[in-house]
UniProtKB/TrEMBL annotation:
The keyword Kinase does not apply. It comes from Thermomonospora echinospora. Residues 1-38 form the signal peptide. Residues 51-92, 153-187 form a coiled coil. This is ARB-07466-like C-terminal domain-containing protein.
Length: 315
């Protein structure tokens, strides 16, 4: 026999269950709405094609300009990474939408009641409150998924804008360097390519002169690293040296950073006389074929970003 208290308790418990069920249904509705509006967009094929075309232009300029154009390679790498990010976010968004579709199908097959609601549909007064708590938890989980989809949409849109900006920056850099064609041709005539010398660590005569002069003016350095066999860039051909301001990948002291500033400034001021092609220092590059310091992308570590050494390449 039911007493007024037991009936009231059952009504209260069932009321809690109904509220939780309504919350779960509301979350499901929002989830479905998000699926209708969150359309994953692939990277623009025109942008992918444009980067490929610009890559060909860079290679053509490098042949004409006597070696790698690190500034252009760096910007191109950033543009490709941005396009890859757009694609990765698209896949994440497709996965989230697939879960939405699964929820919609489940609701349809259960006459609009989400399957997790059926699990908590109990008439046992002793378990309804705990089951209602579970329903609220499921509702919160679905709400979080809705927020994730909204975040993915925003991230993908931002990544697409960044990719387009990187491509425009690459186009601008190529155009600026191409304007220097006549001046670069004069530099190349002045500084004809040299072969590495036997018994000199594989360095060219020009690089040896630069290394010796900077060592005489600003040495000693903790380490000077030059030829690296197998390196596809200037270190491999004996046309580059790294003048270290610290070792073991540590950030140099303020005094050594100031020393590196002096070394790079000296290299720029004497570049024409010494045949220096470019200098990299503190995540910036100064290329004599397109003068002026320009920021480079973040490559990760102190060494990769050239905070612990001044890199100097010669023609």
């Amino acid at each position: 026999m039911e007493t007024p208290d037991s009936t009231r308790g059952k009504r209260t418990a069932r009321g809690g269950f109904r509220r939780a069920t309504m919350a779960l249904t509301t979350a499901a509705g929002a989830f479905l709405l998000a699926s209708a509006t969150a359309q994953p967009v692939a990277a623009d094929p025109d942008n992918i094609k444009k980067v490929a075309e610009l890559t060909k232009e860079i290679k053509s300029l490098e042949k004409e300009y006597g070696g790698n154009l690190e500034q252009l390679r760096d910007t191109r790498k950033e543009a490709k990474k941005a396009l890859e990010k757009v694609e990765l976010l698209r896949r994440d968004l497709i996965g989230a939408r697939a879960l939405v579709a699964q929820l919609a199908a489940s609701q349809y097959m259960t006459n609009g009641i989400e399957p997790t609601v059926q699990i908590v549909a109990s008439d046992d007064p002793g378990s309804v409150l705990s089951n209602a708590s579970l329903a609220r938890h499921l509702s919160q989980t679905h709400s979080a998924k809705v927020q994730q989809i909204a975040s993915l949409v925003a991230q993908q849109d931002k990544a697409r804008q960044e990719a387009e900006a990187k491509i425009k920056a690459l186009e601008k850099d190529i155009a600026e360097i191409a304007k220097e064609r006549d001046r670069v041709q004069l530099l190349l005539k002045k500084y004809k390519p040299e072969s590495p010398m036997v018994g000199s660590g594989g360095m060219t005569p020009r690089m040896i002169k630069v290394r010796d002069e900077i060592e005489a003016e600003y040495g000693p350095f903790p380490v000077i690293g030059c030829t690296r066999p197998g390196d596809p860039l200037d270190h491999g051909s004996g046309r580059a040296c790294d003048f270290m301001e610290s070792t073991a990948g540590a950030m140099p002291s303020s005094a050594r950073l100031a020393h590196g500033d002096a070394v790079s400034d000296y290299a720029i001021r004497n570049a024409s006389r010494l045949g220096i092609k470019y200098i990299i220092w503190k995540q910036r590059i100064y290329d004599l074929r397109s003068p002026g310091w320009k920021m480079m992308s973040d490559r990760g570590s102190i060494t990769q970003n050239h905070f612990d050494h001044v890199h100097i390449s010669v023609f």
